[in-house]
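Need a sequence for this fold. Nothing fancy.
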């Protein structure tokens, strides 16, 4: 037990000591089935992750941090694939910027993203990685922008578009991803 705690402490110290170095990709681990720290320097500077690898596959909750140590995301893994809830946080104020559900590595169930003012940006439903069901997209003021319906990843049914005041500007119909004729209704301006 003391040996594991010591190895974790050494791993944390290693990360902190090398935090601003030019390492491109490094790993620190204290055993084959234990906590691993990954440090990457690249497009998004100084991001690192913490989680468990089992047989070289991600397992359990993985947490991604920014260079200041604030949590950017949390996601569960099972056998190396995303499983369960994934949450992304705003780097500016740590509020939730998006939340989604995964099953066997694919978006499954609800995905919601938020504007920086905590108003919902989009609400989507997925089934095995494909859009499925009603999708709602909003303006930054919270009024609805689009209502879409999908079936197995393709637009299907009536699609509605609104202006920022909530007035309908388009009503179109799709069948199996193909727009059916002309718009059902379209507002001219």
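Here you go.
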């Amino acid at each position: 037990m003391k040996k594991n705690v010591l190895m974790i402490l050494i791993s944390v110290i290693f990360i902190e000591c090398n935090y601003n170095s030019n390492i491109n990709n490094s790993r620190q681990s204290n055993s084959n089935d234990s906590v691993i720290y990954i440090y990457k320097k690249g497009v998004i500077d100084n991001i690192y992750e913490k989680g468990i690898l089992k047989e070289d596959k991600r397992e359990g909750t993985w947490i991604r941090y920014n260079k200041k140590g604030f949590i950017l995301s949390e996601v569960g893994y099972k056998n190396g694939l995303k499983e369960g809830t994934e949450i992304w946080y705003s780097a500016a104020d740590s509020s939730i910027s998006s939340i989604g559900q995964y099953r066997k590595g694919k978006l499954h169930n609800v995905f919601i993203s938020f504007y920086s003012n905590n108003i919902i940006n989009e609400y989507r439903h997925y089934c095995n990685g494909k859009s499925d069901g009603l999708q709602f997209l909003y303006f930054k003021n919270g009024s609805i922008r689009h209502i879409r319906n999908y079936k197995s990843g393709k637009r299907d049914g009536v699609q509605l578009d609104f202006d920022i005041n909530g007035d309908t500007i388009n009503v179109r119909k799709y069948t199996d991803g193909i727009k059916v004729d002309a718009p059902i209704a379209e507002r001219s301006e």
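For context: The longest strand covers residues 57-65.
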